[in-house]
Amino acid sequence: MAARVLSVDGVAVYLEGEGPHTVVMLHGWPDTHRLWDAQVAHLLATFPGQLCCARFTLPGFDLTQPPRPLTLQGMADAVARIVDTVSPDRPVTLLLHDWGCVFGYEYLAQHPQRVARLVAVDIGDHNAGALRRSLSARAKWGVAVYQLWLALAWGVGRFVNQALATRMTRAMAAALRCPTAQADIGWQMNYPYAAQWSGGYRKAAPVAPACPTLYFYGQRKPFQFQSQGWLDWLAATPGNEIRPMPTGHWVMVQQPQPFNDHLAGWLARTPAG
Q1: What class has domain 4-135+206-269?
Q2: For residue 242, which of 269, 215, 260, 224 has the smallest C-alpha distance?
Q3: Is the whole model's pTM more than 0.85, yes or no?
């Protein structure tokens, strides 16, 4: 069945499946809504007539549209409008990855009553001092190098040369072994890094979900994006689960079947009410 497409403030939102509960999916850098193809297919096959999957390409990440940098609050507001459109009467499940985690956590902090369950992938307490303290000097250097490069590429694209900025972005994506096709990656996707390093995201809410939470993270990376203390805190609440995976950052792409099986199993035993 073809996806139904809604336009919410100029963002194309793809709806697939029929059911009383909606799973809203947010991707990260440098991806699009297609990151979740395998998960949508698996969830709809596993829960026929029970779930609707809603996904969209983050504002500013659609290369067919003009650049659209949003503030952290602007992104939280955009997510709120989309959630209210696709599920006006019932709370949703959030499925998040990378920058989608940052934006989804902010939305959750502001609208906790609108989220029944949370599934987050590879970004945990991103703005916590505990995470910063847990990183080695080498890891901090690695984070700074790739993020500042992408922030610089955003500035080059905006003020100097867009073709050069896209080449810079694609080179970093290749270096990070990003599975997204190079043709689908552009400089305008880098605005979150520019905002972060210019201080625009410093007021992000602490990552402390009160709803049932499933957290996946890849073990085979040069550095982690969650602190051990946060993992311990998360695991202390009954109903939460933590799933380390033998992957890099793109867990759902590198180990799709185990990821999908864990995801569907947790959803089946975790009520959405």
Answers
A1: alpha beta
A2: 215
A3: yes
